[in-house]
Amino acid sequence: VDGGAHPPARRPPAVTDRPPPALPAPHARALLDALPDAVLVIGPDLAVSWWNPAAGRLFGWTAAAWTPRPLADLYWDELEGPGLALVDRAAMAAGPVARALRTDAGERRLCLLRALSLGDQVALIVRVLERWPHAACIHSRGLMVYVNRALCEAWRGPRADLIGRPVLDLVAPRDREMVARRVRDLYSGAAVEPYLDEHLQRRDGSE
Fold first, then answer.
1. Do 138 and 122 touch, CB atoms closer than 8 A?
2. Which residue among 40, 142, 175, 203 is least enclosed by CB atoms within 10 Å?
3. Cβ distance 111 to 2 under 8 Å?
4. Nearest to 3 by CA among 121, 131, 113, 128
C-alpha cells in the first residue's frame, strides 16, 4: 500500500495475501526492507502478519508496538468491516483496488492494494537488485542464474558471461577455499564469520 497527503506515486504499491510464514526469508526480507513502497504480508485469516519499514512509516507502526491485526481494522470507514476485506481480497487478484486506510494517528491515506503473483514477486526482487549499488548474484547449486547490473560493472563484462558459471569464478583463486568453507558452514547451520573480506576478480583476472 502507498499513499498520503501527496499525490499518489506512479508505481502502484504492493500487498500480497498469500499465506506465507509470519516473516519472509532473511534474504527476501532484506530486499523488501529496501523498497520505497509499503508492503504488507496478509495471511489467509486476513490479518497483517508482517510489514516492511515503508509501511511502518506510512501507518505509524513501530516494531516494539506491533501485534498482528485484521486488514479490516485498517479501513477508514469502520462500517466496511471484514466483509469488504474479503471482497477486496478477491478483487486484488484481478488488479489494484483503491481504498481509504487509516494510520495509527487517525490520518486518512488513499491507497492502492494489489495482490502479487509469484511472477510479480520475482519481478519485484529483480527490480530492487537492479537498483542496488552493491554487486549481487543469485545462484543455484553453485551456478549463477542471475547477476545484477552492479556486478556486471565490477566484472567488466556482459551479463551473459556470468550466467551459468560457478559463483566461485567471481572469487580470487587465493580466497576460494575460504569462501567454499564459509558456504558449507552456512548451509550446515554453523556460525559464519560476520565480515566478508575475500578478494574478487574481474573478467580479465585482475582483482
1. no
2. 142
3. yes
4. 113
Spatial contact of 15 and 92, defined as CB atoms under 8 Å apart: yes
User: H or E element: which one contains 83?
Assistant: helix 81-91
Dist CA 41 CA 200 (whole Å): 36
The per-residue pLDDT for range 29-60, each reduced to its tens digit, is 766 777 777 888 877 788 888 888 888 888 88
Burial class (CB in 10 A: 0-12, 13-18, 19+), 188: exposed
Cβ-based neighbours of 181, under 8 Å, separated by 6 or more: none
Q: pLDDT value at position 66?
A: 66
Q: How far apart are CA 163 and CA 137, in angstroms?
A: 10
CB 100 within 8 A of CB 76: yes
C-alpha cell at 125: 526482487
Q: 129 and 31 in contact (C-beta within 8 Å)? A: yes
The CB density around residue 153, as the number of other CB atoms within 10 Å, is 11
